[in-house]
Amino acid sequence: MTAPAPAAASGAARRLAVKLEPASAALHAALSALWRLPDPADRYRAYLRTMHTVIRASVPLMETAARRCADLGPADPVAGPLGRYLTAHIEEERHHDAWLLADLALAGGDPAEPLRQLPPPEAARLVGAQFYWVLHHHPVCLLGYIAVLEGHAPAPWLADRLARTTGLPDAAFRTVREHAVLDAGHGADLDALLDRLPLTPEQESWVAVSALHTVAAAVELLRRPDPTVPHAPPGGAP
Fold this sequence. Notes:
Helix content: 55-70%
Strand content: under 5%
Radius of gyration: 18 Å
Largest sheet: none
Order of helices and strands: HHHHHHHHHHH
Structural class: mainly alpha
């Protein structure tokens, strides 16, 4: 379901791809397993709710990182080009959470439900770590998160296959279709940024740690049956 890193990627982008390759197998497996479960229409609605818990945070997260870049100022050689990349990327990602809610409505779900429900702990671990690293360490860490999310774009054929297996209208798969196209270009842009940023070896390691955490947390989230069904706390207490 995932394209490999572009052949043109080199330097920091290639080194990150090599570090991610072993861990990515678990993410590929979790993504594939989603569509082998019973009741594909319900599974797709749960997928949309799950993805909304993540995508709703994309723009606020990048805005936070862009502000941190501005605070670091010209004394930090990474902050300027990183901030410019984030500012442009924010506009490319804006309103994608609304796409998910529109798809959910077309798929027969309640688009208000993801906004009422407490996002699950798995989503908080996935996204929350990035806010922590951006605010309390360095915004370059966010590139590891972006590399994983945009490096695992939906396959070009996935939307059509899901429409057939779920019996839902084609219009309910806008987000999957759009991201199959958009994320390939975004991934190439990120590779180019990684290769031109004056990253130190230490900063490359920060990006890799962020990316590996993102893979592990995303697998946990994808393996969760449905974010609208709360997990019982230890001991079975309500």
